[in-house]
Amino acid sequence: MTSFKEAETEETVTCLHLTFYHPGQDEKMMFRCLEFCKREQVRADDMAKFGRDSSACRYSLMDTRVSRIQFSLQFYRKLHTSEHGFEIKNLSKKTKLTVNQTELGYLNKIDLPWKCIICFGDYQILAEIQEGEAVDYFETHLHLAEAPILQEKCLPSLQPVPENGISPSFFLSQGKSPTEIDENDL
After folding, report:
1. pLDDT grade, residue 158 (50/70/90)?
2. Averaged pLDDT, 155-175
3. Are 105 and 95 within 8 A, CB to CB?
4. Residue 150 DSSP symbol
5. Which of 105, 136, 182, 184 has a 20 to 30 A CA-CA distance from 23?
6. For the chain, which domains are there?
7. Which of 73, 81, 138, 141 is nearest to 112 (CA)?
8. Which residues of 40-59 are buried (b: 16+ CB within 10 A; e: fewer)?
C-alpha cells in the first residue's frame, strides 16, 4: 500500500460545458444524437466538429438547416504559458456564426472566451470553459436548456422622469393622468 505522500497527484482536466437551446427542440428533436449530462473525453489533437453530417462531426445536430459541418472547436496551449484555450472556426459557407456578438464568416476563427454565447440560425449555445492542467485531452459536458439562453430584454420606454422622481407610468397605473406643476407651487 502506498502512503498518502507517495500517491500520484490527480491531474485536473479542462472541461468545455456547452448548453444547447433551439425554440423547436421539443418537436424537431434535433439534439437526439447528443449525449447530455455525461462528460466525454476528447483527444487534444482532435478537432471537435459540430454539424449535421454524423460521419464528419463528433456532435451531430439532426436538422437540414444546419450545415454539413457548421463549426469546429480546437483545443490548444497558449504560447509561453501553461494556459489552455479553445479556438472556434466557422465552417459553414451559408450561415454566419456569432460569438458574443462577434460575427464570423466562412473560415473565420477566434479564441473562445471563457464564457460566451454562440449563435447560428435559431441555435443558441452557452459555452463555459472550466480550466484544467491535462495536456493530452479535454472533456466536453453537454447540457440542454429548457428556456432561451438569450432573453429578449424588455427595456422601459425612454420617457423623461420628472424631478420629483415619480415616473409618468406610475400615474397611468393608478388611473390618474400626470399634471404639470410649477416649481414655485411646491
Report:
1. very low
2. 50
3. no
4. S
5. 105
6. 17-144 (2.60.200.20)
7. 73
8. bebeeeebbbbbbeeeebbb
